[in-house]
Design a protein that fits this description.
four-stranded antiparallel beta sheet, seven-stranded mixed beta sheet, mainly beta, 120 residues
Length: 120
């Protein structure tokens, strides 16, 4: 079992920045590829970014490429999502996810989510 807890969400104006964190506990964090997904009201959950176990080869959705950066610190069992140049359409609940496969569209473990709201 892997437990994931997100933090760092909030309300920000368009053009602003936020950094999300996801703290993992349980099995060895470095054994898992990590990802971020999001779900806006009335929409399906969508992939945002993923990163390999080692921290290499980050992969992004086209909608966030160049604005978001995923990173991880295996010593701290934490994965991050730095979000810059935020847009109102980035408003969603953001979920951290873990899976032994990279990338995975159906990760095995999920956090409970953190709300990000971008005002225009």
């Amino acid at each position: 079992q892997v437990q994931l807890v997100e933090s760092g969400g909030g309300l920000v104006q368009a053009g602003g920045s936020l950094r999300l964190s996801c703290a993992a506990s349980g099995r060895t964090f470095s054994s898992y590829a990590m990802g971020w997904f999001r779900q806006a009201p009335g929409k399906e959950r969508e992939f945002v970014a993923a990163i390999r176990r080692s921290g290499g080869s980050p992969y992004y959705a086209d909608s966030v490429k160049g604005r978001f950066t995923i990173s991880r610190d295996n010593a701290k069992n934490t994965v991050y999502l730095q979000m810059n140049s935020l847009k109102p359409e980035d408003t969603a609940v953001y979920y951290c996810a873990a899976d032994q496969k990279y990338p995975s569209s159906t990760p095995e473990y999920w956090g409970q989510g953190t709300q990000v709201t971008v005002s225009s």
